[in-house]
Structures are given as structure tokens and as C-alpha cells.
Amino acid sequence: MSMPSNPLPEDDQATAYPSPTEYADSALSPDPNVAPLEPMPPPQARFPAWSWWDTLAVLGFTVFAVFLFSVIALAIARTIPKYQHIPVADLAMDPHIVVGAQATAYPVILVVIFVLVRSRTHQRFRDAIHWNWPGVSAPGFFIAGSVLALIVEGLSSFLPIPKSLPMDNYFHNASSAYLLAAFGITLAPLLEEVFFRGMLYPLARRAFGLAIAVLVTAAAFAAIHGAQLGYAWSPILSIFVVGVVFTVTRARMDSVAASFLMHCGYNFALFTALWIASDHYRHLEKVTG
Questions:
Q1: Where are the domains of the chain?
Q2: Rounded to whole angstroms, how far apart are CA atoms 70 and 167?
Q3: Which of 47, 154, 201, 279 is the most exposed place for a label (fewest CB within 10 A)?
Q4: Which has the higher per-residue pLDDT, 91 or 265?
């Protein structure tokens, strides 16, 4: 009697297990009938990474830093012979003291903002606040800010602007005017844009939407200039409109740098107009009342 060609019954052949080598090969080979799993996209970082409390902390530190450096500047001034007999109240209004204190405080405040933002996110600071330098169009934003200043000043002539404003008291002479101009075209716009359009606006937009965020940011921007303008409604309204334009520019271009350049151009035009009207800052009484 001959032996069957296959000693295993048919059922046993169907359930026979592959060799270890065959099993390993099949485990490593993808099944052509099964679609590969798509990798999960990384979770998007929350924008902005900071909170309202962080923004309030920056605001509080700003007040503290300006006050502290003002006190230090006054103390230093009292050691200088020409300032020793000036009353403290008058000395506190001296533009060299005021601008000197703020020019010293502002870089410190910017460093605090930088550290706070970097502590809340792994992004670079300029990416976190959406600085986004506009490239070759940068001069255009500066020019647009200058044109905006001329338009706002022209329209302001139809409003009841007070003849004298508290800010006029800082323009004592040419040296103080040049000092204010240098500060107003560089450090002041930088800090204000980083804070208002870089930190405050994103929070307001996330909480209230675009339209309300623009109004809230512009209102806060106008409010910090209230003391300089004697809280007169007409110049504050002008600053509010300017704040709206700056914030819309920041929103539309997604660029704090764009609003910063406009701010620099705006202040540059104002100081240039004053420079021309006062005969190179030599006759400031003609324009400051």
C-alpha cells in the first residue's frame, strides 16, 4: 500500500502555522489592503500665549518703573548745581528729567515684556507677538503714518482744540524739543506698539472679536495720552482715530512692525511740522502758546 503524498489531512493544512521567519516577515510588511494611519497633526499653540493678568502685570510694572526712574532722576538732578534751587514740582516737569526717566525705564519694560512672553511660549519673541517685518514695503508704512498725521491735523482744525495743552509745557527750548522728538520717534512708538498692538490687541480679539478689539485697543491707546492732552475730548478723539488706524493696520497686515512704522511716521510728521513752524525749534512760543 502506498503512503499518501501529504500526511496531513486537509483541515490540518488549513490551520498550519507559518514558520517563525515567515511570521516575522509578515509582521514587518504592511498590508496592501489597509490604508496607513495618518500621523496626528501637532496641536496648535494658543494665540496669544499670555493672559489678561500678564498684560495687567506689564501695565503695573510700567507705572512702577516710570515712577521709580523718575524719582531716581529727580534725586540725581538735585545734586546738579543748576537744579538745586528749582522746586521739586517744577523739576518734575522738566523735559530732561521726564524724558530721561522714561528713556531709561522703557528698555527695562521691554525686557520684562520679552521675558514674560518667552516664558509663556516656545516661539521666538517676534513670532509670538506677530512682529512680521513688512520687508520692502516698510518705507510705505512710515510714509502712510506721516500722511495720516497731516490728515488728522487738518481735520482737527475743525474741532475745538484747546490753545494750550499740558504737553506744551515740555517744549521749553530747542534742546528739550529735540530730546522729545528723538524719544517720540523711537522708543515711545516701540513700547506702545509692542504693548497695545502686540499684547493687548490679540487678547481683545480672542475675547470680543475683531471690531470690538480694534475699538478697545484704540480706546486704551487714547487713554494713556489723556494726561498729556489735559483730558480734552477733541484731541483725545483724534488720538483715538489714530489708534483705530494703527490697530486696523496691525490686524490687516498681521504685523506689529507695520503699525510701529506707521506710528514712527506719524510722530515724525508732527515733530517735523513743529520744527518748521517754530523756526527749527528756536521760537517754540509761536506754536505752543
A1: 52-288
A2: 17
A3: 154
A4: 265
